[in-house]
Amino acid sequence: MRKLFAFGVVFALMAIAPGLLNPYQLSILLKILIWGLFAMSYDLVFGYTGLLSLGHSVYFGLGAYGAALMMLQMHPGIAISLAAGVLLGGLAAALIGLLAVRSGGHGFIIVTAVTALLFYLLAQSQRNVTGGDDGLTLGPLPLQIAGWSAGCADPGPAYLLVLVVAGLSFLLLYALVRAPLGLALRCVRENEPRAQALGYDTITLKWLAFALSGGAAALAGALYALTNCHISTALFHWLVSADALIWTLFGGMGTLVGPLLGTGVFFILREGLSGIWQVGYPILVGLTLLLIARFFPQGLLGIIKGLGQTLRGFSR
Amino acid sequence: MELVLFQLLNGFVWAWVVALMALGLNLVYGVLRIINVAHGAFYMLGAVAGWVILEQLQGVSDMYILNFALALLGAPLFVGLLGLLLEWTVLRPIEGQPVITIIATFALLLILQQGVQLLLPGTQQVAPPVAGGVEIFRLRYPVYRWVLAGLSGLFITFLWLLLQKTRFGLWSRAVRQDPELALAVGIPVPWIFGLTFGLGVALAAVAGVLTAPIVPVEASMGMDILLDSFIVVIVGGLGSLQGAVIAALILQLAKGVFTIWTAPVAAHALALLLMGLLLLIRPQGLLGTDAD
């Protein structure tokens, strides 16, 4: 109940953000929501199920291209474009997942990395469909709320759309990981042979997590395509998957809220630092990762929880 | 006809480079159970260190072949020592946590690559130590590429001898089978871990110096070859040295053959699909026996 209340407060605060922020700040907040959803989808596979995927960029990219091509070719409504992206990415995840989850342990990492490379190369070679490096350009989202319309530099009402979709997705994912299925996934992560011994079909469980996570990643990609006005084949690159890994780890894996938090902190840091020291940013990311790996494997959320416990300890 | 031959020869030459890279990865995985995502960065570091050594020697000695030989020894030595140091400081404390280790090597990749980008922006050129070409079937093919394939093969043979005929090799194979038992019979396991990691990344550096004359030397040069090497390790069979060489030959020759019909990018994709097919037929790898 308290958590639901906290969610409501944060959601309400974010809903009034357009009135408080300028269009540029609002567009950053929009990006945090979209990439945060991507990181949360990643957390389902990495944090909850213990599978390190380097191929999630594929589903983000397919979601983006599915929605963009649908929008450009058929000019349907927003909902249908989003659905097209989710369907394309989700189906691909379901199919690739069949092979990926069977290649246990370290094989899984390589298989997912290779799918990312494969889709990147295929997208590059089909320039007439994907636009290659130059990508595709979409117009502003055809969305108007009381005379307030979306532009490419100013998200406007597109922000509210993304907020609602991301909020609903978060609730769905949260319900999912709290359900018996989520517990079973964590059981697979902690000890797969024991999960098998308890009678769980671990291959199916891993496949389910992979496919659902791919669908959520595709939704994030579709939202990205419709609100960003421009997409390119770079979205398929495995480094995009590595970004999701970094944000998830930084925020705290296996928490859902952590990845969103991690994405937010990283985007705000990047905005603040890139002006001063653009080339140094990846070095900073690298050093941060080393410190997290060595000292804080629970991430930012773990540190906050630890601090909270210490304070409570003092007050007693 | 010349084009077909040219592509096949290119595939053959690159196969040995990729095999060299894959052997380094395989060695580190076999002994330390680490997937070294930073392997491509060490390859790049080898090429860059080789370039630096050649630049420094330019005024000192006029014999370019000798300078190149010094770079070929010096750069891997430097990278190998760096690897030893990094294993000791970064990887040792998080030993036995696979996911965390992979993330740490990814962090190393970011730091090394961007560090080089900061210190040495742009693209460098390295002249080949031997110029000219050899004519076979009316096609002139650069001599250096033959030398490159030959030297790679030589280093692979050295590695094999090291692993099969020396005490280090014996100990390293023992640690690969069972680290705890190896420790119990008095093998200095921590040293084997460190030396193996150093040796593995030094092999990547050798590949880097060797390919420096035929590719642009830049900070991002290790990215493409990294994934190719991973694929070769998996398809060849984790832990199998011969398998890696065979898989490298299949991958690179397929890439060369497909280039005859389609654009290079599509050919690369097709070659990957072929490797995927091989993996479907033999999930444990061509010569793999390990279950994982």
Query: How would you describe the oligomerization state of the chains in this entry?
Result: heterodimer
Rough outline of chain B:
globular
Query: N-to-C SSE series of chain B?
Result: HHHHEEHHHHHHH
Q: Main beta sheet of chain A, described?
A: 2 strands, antiparallel
Please give the order of strands in the largest beta sheet of chain A: 1-4
Largest interface: A-B, 39 and 44 residues
- Strand count, sense and closure of the main sheet of chain B? 2 strands, antiparallel
Record the strand order, biggest sheet of chain B. Answer: 1-2
Average residue-wise pLDDT of chain B: 87
State the distance separating the first and last CA atoms of chain B: 42 Å
Tally the beta strands of chain B. 2
Number of helices of chain B: 11
Radius of gyration of chain A: 19 Å
How would you describe what is shown here?
The complex is a heterodimer of chains A (316) and B (292). By secondary structure, chain A is an all-alpha fold. Chain A has one domain. Helices cover 76% and strands 3% of the residues of chain A. Chain A has 15 helices and four strands. In chain A, the strands form two sheets. In chain A, strands 1-4 form a two-stranded antiparallel ribbon. In chain A, strands 2-3 form a two-stranded antiparallel sheet. In chain A, strand 2 and strand 3 form a beta hairpin. In chain A, helix 3 runs antiparallel to helix 11 and helix 3 crosses helix 13. The model of chain A has no long low-confidence stretch (mean pLDDT 87). In chain B, a hairpin with a 2-residue loop joins strand 1 and strand 2. Chain B has 292 residues and is mainly alpha-helical. Chain B has a domain of 204 residues. Chain B is globular. Chains A and B meet through helix 6, helix 12 and helix 14 of A and helix 4, helix 9 and helix 11 of B.
